[in-house]
Amino acid sequence: MGLVWILLGSSLCTTVVLYTELSRRDTLTGMEFVLLVIVLVREQFSEKWWYPALFQAWIGITFLLANWLRISEGRDSVSGYVTFGPTFLLIGLLKIVRHFVAKTSDRCPQN
Fold first, then answer.
1. How high is the pLDDT of residue 86?
2. Could you tell me which residues come within 8 angstroms of residue 106 by beta carbon, excluding any fewer than 6 positions away?
3. What is the pLDDT of residue 102?
4. Sign of the dihedral defined by the CA atoms of residues 16, 13, 2, 36, in that order
């Protein structure tokens, strides 16, 4: 059930960010909503290893998609999207890789 809430919140974040870009509203409104979701959901799922990695990768993809949407409409790129999109995506993917590498190294016997 927790995964459903996380996917719902992440989808809602993506929808709000893309809506603010499509409607040419202030980008800050979308970012405030993303921060609100992070604050509300983080405490309930902070003990799960996959939550921060999944949410960071999702937000990274959302920022990259929002930047692509701006550029395809002929508008200037937002430096926050360009900077934090790939960074969040990379951090999320590295957390996933680190978890599975640590898990497999625990299985290997030490000599």
1. 93
2. none
3. 85
4. negative
Mean pLDDT of 75-86: 88
State the Cα–Cα distance between residues 8 and 13, nearest whole angstrom: 9
Distance of CA 24 to the CA centre of its chain: 22
Domain that holds residue 34: 2-107
Decide if pLDDT at 94 tops 70.
Answer: yes
User: Model pTM greater than 0.90?
Assistant: no
CA distance linking residue 82 with residue 80, whole number of Å: 5
Q: Are 62 and 89 in contact (CB under 8 A)?
A: no
Domain count for the chain: 1
C-alpha torsion angle, residues 31, 82, 98, 39 (rounded to 10) = -10
